[in-house]
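Lecture notes, structural biology module. Today: joint structure prediction for complexes of two components.
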Amino acid sequence: MELADAIRKRRSIRRFKQLQVPEKLIHTLIDAARMAPCAGNMQILRFVSVTEKSLVLSVFHETFWAAQVKPHRTPVAEVTAPVAFIAVVAPDDASAILHADAGAAIQNILLCAADNVLGSCWIGAFNKDKVDALLDLPAGMKVLYLVALGFPYESPVMENIEEGDSTKYYLDDKDVLHVPKYTVEALTTWK
Amino acid sequence: MELADAIRKRRSIRRFKQLQVPEKLIHTLIDAARMAPCAGNMQILRFVSVTEKSLVLSVFHETFWAAQVKPHRTPVAEVTAPVAFIAVVAPDDASAILHADAGAAIQNILLCAADNVLGSCWIGAFNKDKVDALLDLPAGMKVLYLVALGFPYESPVMENIEEGDSTKYYLDDKDVLHVPKYTVEALTTWK
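The predicted structure, tokenised, for the full assembly:
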């Protein structure tokens, strides 16, 4: 897919088909993640690919979803839930800059997922200690973010908004998720 | 350009041709940035496009570059320096999660730059108070990161390394910058 299409078409997906994601495809996503830039090229982040069914389910039960349209975009286990996760792992004392590194690496994962007809959702809200324990992380490491994965079972749409408009996403009467995004003009000063 | 090519070919650029970057192209980059996901879809980040020559130079003088190969990849004003910047702006009390949002938005900018034959370098090291003052930011806002822009005047190369190898980037005897990146195998646990 053309880069511009991947950037435009990628949306967070919260309803997934119950089809397995091949580990080879997750390898492709992490290959994209590792090529993102990072502070001082230090490459402190690590990744855990989770595809084993019962572990995916256990991790899923510790995640929180789309507060603004609750419960309509809270996936249901074995019906619309993600079928895999990538956990982005960092040292306990992760700096703000390491969060920025994670953002860049995750964006590559999300774009690469869209390019492979895969749905994804970047998750920051989860029971941290429980997920760390489930993934049996080495001492001194923690899960910074999760990326939920699966083939998409919804098609959210983006719409443009201007300065002052609400950024709240919403479901229409056909159960389509609308995601308002500020225009370039609303966000930018030119000097 | 295909997404996979943009991800693979994008490298941080620190030597730029002294050709102007059209404001229209910067609009395209910020259009990519705004489409990145962000926590709660809140869209707190703002952007300042800097193309006015004397302001670009003033901002450039407050930036720090590539410590590991200093001074060989410290651009020289009016010779190899960037010709534009995008400043990513946030509230003074920016959370770690907002840094992650910035990382995702910046990654879209960097990929979109590569797609438009433009070089870019994400900069986290700069004199923060001075750059804030130069850009005349509204009260309570600060520059979180800078992205330096210009048409590239170098061609860095990526190479694969295994666990335990040094991540230090280096110049070879032909003045080509080499950027070591861990393989997927070195970074990933499979569960």
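Point to remember: Helices of chain A lie at 3-9, 23-34, 53-60, 96-115, 128-134, 184-187.
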